[in-house]
């Protein structure tokens, strides 16, 4: 996909996320890797109303080249895209259920989202680290995010929200949606007796087949 098509797709997918309540107000931001740098949603922009022509463009060294001023979470996106060279895009949301889990998970540990359904395992994998709380946009989070992103496709920012990577922009969005649904199921079924999880063998099978 060329840059023009990716800009259009970013606006379409941003609106889709916003319209379904995965993002409210100006919450969340998205980055996409390009052959000559990165696209990034502008700071204080609403994911539901992105203008493709005004999306920020950053150079390979992450300096701002064109478009509106980029998201204050440039460090967050840089950490994930640097830790995961195979990732083509990163989606950060404040979606309700994943954010709720980010308020329960131990800072610096892994969040407890059990493998209940195949698509969570296929799109997110085995681990969901929770990076300690930092103020939004605080560059000091970068090393912790980098370490978490090295071991997992998705992570949580404590008391803030999810950060999800994918091979393409579409993959990252789909994975963010899947994480939100898994978080919702995890909370719905929390402390409910008799909940059946996927077995370790079923998880292995999914990761070997689709991972
Ligand atoms: O989600 C956000 C901060 O974490 C939104 O910030 P930006 O508007 O700067 O992208
Ligand atoms: Zn945020």
From TrEMBL:
Stored SUPFAM superfamilies: AraD/HMP-PK domain-like
Instruction: Tell me yes or no: is Lyase among this UniProt entry's keywords.
Output: yes
Question: What Gene Ontology cellular-component terms does the record carry?
Answer: cytosol
* Keywords in alphabetical order: Carbohydrate metabolism, Lyase, Metal-binding, Zinc
A Pfam family this chain is assigned to = Aldolase_II
One GO biological process term is: pentose catabolic process
Q: What is its EC number?
A: 4.1.1.104
This protein's cofactor list reads:
Zn(2+)
Listed under catalytic activity are: 3-dehydro-4-O-phospho-L-erythronate + H(+) = dihydroxyacetone phosphate + CO2; 3-dehydro-4-O-phospho-D-erythronate + H(+) = dihydroxyacetone phosphate + CO2
Superkingdom of the source species: Bacteria
| GO MF | aldehyde-lyase activity; metal ion binding
Which ranges form a coiled coil?
A: none
Gene3D superfamilies, alphabetized? Class II aldolase/adducin N-terminal domain
Q: State what this protein does.
A: Catalyzes the decarboxylation of 3-oxo-tetronate 4-phosphate to dihydroxyacetone phosphate (DHAP) and CO(2).
> Which family is annotated?
Belongs to the aldolase class II family. AraD/FucA subfamily.
NCBIfam families hit by this protein = OxoTetrPhDc (NF043034), PRK08130.1 (NF006000)
Q: Under which name does UniProt file this protein?
A: 3-oxo-tetronate 4-phosphate decarboxylase
